[in-house]
Structure formats: C-alpha cells, structure tokens
Design goal:
By secondary structure, the chain is an alpha/beta fold. It has two domains: about 150 residues, 3-Layer(aba) Sandwich (Rossmann fold); about 80 residues, SIR2/SIRT2 'Small Domain', CATH 3.30.1600. It has eleven helices and nine strands. The strands form two sheets. A six-stranded parallel sheet has the order 3-2-1-7-8-9, with helices on both faces. It has a three-stranded antiparallel sheet with strand order 5-4-6. Helix 7 links the parallel strand 2 and strand 3. The protein is elongated and about 55 Å long. The two termini are about 20 Å apart. The relative contact order is 0.20. Zinc ion binds next to loops.
Length: about 250
Amino acid sequence: MQDKIKKARDAIQKACKIMVFTGAGISRESGVPTFREAGGLWDKFKVEDFATPEAFQQRPKEVWEWYRFRRNLMRKVKPNPAHYAVAELDERHDDFLLATQNIDNLHQIAGAKRVMELHGNIFRSYCMKCGYEADESVSELTGEVPSCTRDDCSGVMRPKVVWFGEQLDPDVLEQSFRFAAQADCCIVIGTSGLVYPAAQLPFLARRNDACVIEINPEPSAITPITDYFLQGPAGEIMPQLLEETR
Ligand SMILES: [Zn+2]
C-alpha cells in the first residue's frame, strides 16, 4: 500500500492537468446524514417523494420544507481531511478542476475554488421563471415557497439541485467533460461510478492516457481502469498523497 501511495503521489506531482472527481463517499466520512438516518418526521417518505419535478409541481411547500430540513442537518457538518487535501491540490496546481456529485458545499467550505457541481448545491436556489439565482437566505425567511426577488418577477424559486428525471446543467457537464478528456491525472474519490453521465469522467481521462487514481473503501465500477486503487478512507489516504511536497 505504501508503495502504491508513493507512486500515486509521484504521478500527481508530475501531472500538469489534474481532475478530481468526488461522490457521496467523501462526505460520508464527514457524517453527512441521509434523511433516513435523521429519523423522526420524514421516516415514512422516500427521497423520490421530494426530489422530482412532479413532486415539486404537486406539493411545492412540502418539498421546500424537506429541503429546509435537510439544509439544517447539513449545516452542522464539517469538511474532513480529504476535502482539505483536495482544496490544497486546487491551490497548488495551475490547471485543476474538481467535479463533484455532492450538493453539500463541503468542498467550497474547505477552500476549493474551481468546482463543478454536477448535481447542484442544496444551499442555493433559482427562479423557475427568469433563472435568477439566490443563496439560502432568501428561502429561509418564511415557511412558504420562496418567490423571486428580482425586479417584479416574483416567479417560483426552487432548490438548485438536479432532481430525478432531470438533465444535468449542459454547461457544467461540457466544461467537466472537456477538462477530463485533456487531463493527465484523474483522482476519483468516494463514488461507485454508477451514476451517469458523471461517471464517464474518469473514462474520458483514461482515454487520454491519464493516470487514474481511485480512493474508495471498496472496489467500484471505475476500479478496472485505474492505475492505482487505494483502498480505505479518503480522510486518511488523500493527505498522504500530498505529503512530501508540503
Ligand atoms: Zn425571477
């Protein structure tokens, strides 16, 4: 394992264009609660009861209530050493991009700057009529469905997350794909590699002969194309990949 870590570390140091691709696993180590674990009020519901365009159309107030509840849970969670290590890579490397499937904002709290949020950000909202984007404060004020504050729009605001059955933001996707296709190093952390189109990213990098490094507690759909599969918690392994150049 130490030998593999050393080789992966060398590959990262040599790389010019580095992509990091993260999924729920990196946040799980911070204890980001799923609403199931939270218990109580929402126990009898499924994610699909809220995270779909149909649910929002039929029960917007309830969907907002659920998102406020989840935001409150997520607000208590802090980034872990893996998030900080990714942020440090961002700071060190001129040519860097992080693509994350997480909506919890933990990468940004840790200091990452160049972040593609493939599935959105739970703390942001946007107007369904004019596209105006707002931070959380707008929607936290009342228990009602928030409406747009731009000029006299007053359109309905919705959480800026990609719901089941929705397409990913084409700009975010295109920028991520383009970067991956030119990367010479791709670090995959905490994702099963099963959710498409996001899961294509490491495969695009591989096609460009990038060195693919994976950190996961168990092998994933990406493992067969990796140069280095580092099994274990990202919070322990990621900092080691940066160590010697500190
Ligand atoms: Zn608007």
